[in-house]
Amino acid sequence: MPLALLALAIGAFGIGTTEFVIMGVLPQVAGDFGVSIPTAGYLVSGYALGVVIGAPLLTVLGTRVSRKKMLMFLMGLFIAGNALSAAAPGFGLMLTGRIVASLAHGAFFGIGSVVAADLVAPQKKASAISLMFMGLTVANIVGVPGGTYIGQAAGWRVTFALVAALGVIGLLGVAKLVPGTGRPESVSVRGEFAAFRNVQVWLAMAMTVLGYGGVFAAITYITPMMTEVAGYTEGAVTWLLVLFGIGMFLGNLLGGKFADRALMPMLFTALAALTAALLLFTATAHDKILAAITLSLIGALGFATVPPLQKWVLDQAAAAPTLASAANIGAFNLGNALAAWLGGVVIAAGLGFTAPNWVGAILSGTALLLALLAARLDRRSRTATRAARRSPSPGAGASSRTGTVTGSAAAEPAPETV
Length: 418
Known about the structure:
Order of helices and strands: HHHHHHHHHHHHHHHHHH
Strand content: under 5%
Largest sheet: none
Structural class: mainly alpha
Shape: globular
Number of strands: 0
Helix content: over 70%
Number of helices: 18
């Protein structure tokens, strides 16, 4: 695998840290600003919505420059947003900083996915994408638990200042390791939007919204769930996030490996198992050991869906993949925003801190149904294509049974009538 994938993974590490670390310090942020836990949850959903908006917008603007320059610009935007979050005097500015940082997220992963896939042979594309996303999963093993610990010990502002520093490292990595290329000649805004005429692209994004949203329904409120229900201390949340991150890391690698072999079967398996794990989490959240095991399992199954979903979008939008790829990253975060909001709704309704697990199971189960529909439509399309290839166009001598008869009749004189 090319060394340039390391640069993309470094950027993904910084982005992954800022996306997920807020969950570990959510109670501290809520306490400092004097807001409720569901209100503080807007820092999660607001970030996610920023990704949804920023992914297509910045990707379209980025068609006018080289992909390397665009990746560097996005890392600069990420640094600015996290610096604002660290210095924010009020909740409103904190939310603004989160949104500014989030604008870089979708476009970075969208453009980065295309760059990663272009660097390797066709049969290794899903694995290359998973290696870029490895930075995101490692962030959940190292960056997020470390940021949570620092936030609880020295204050959450220090955490976000360090995240901004991670962005600087990511910027330098992209500048040093990603090969410089000119603006692709074939890229045009109209061509990129044409990919959305394919219903499979929309189905893939819907699967992304619902499938990964199921994970976020539970994970957004993992700190109160583990402390109030499972009985862990706040300090234990750090190593619980490590377990979740290890699960994500392993799920991402396995998802990429098996998606290269059998993409849709891998997706079916991951979504079905994720739905079952989220349902199970409602019961296991009351036991410390079982809660920890289920949490890591949810991380593995949730992130096992990422490489196949991203690869599926790239396959379906092969002629103009950049915008579709970035839009699918936005779909991940739209699912995050939807799930975080629904999780807050059921908690505010008095259904308890385990209620978001039911929300997550419903979301991921619906994603499984959409995956089955997408596979069925794909089979129909392939069958129709094969049938069309076997049947030459009308008018040719051997085009069809009718065509053959017509050709024979034309070759022989018509019999006289009596």
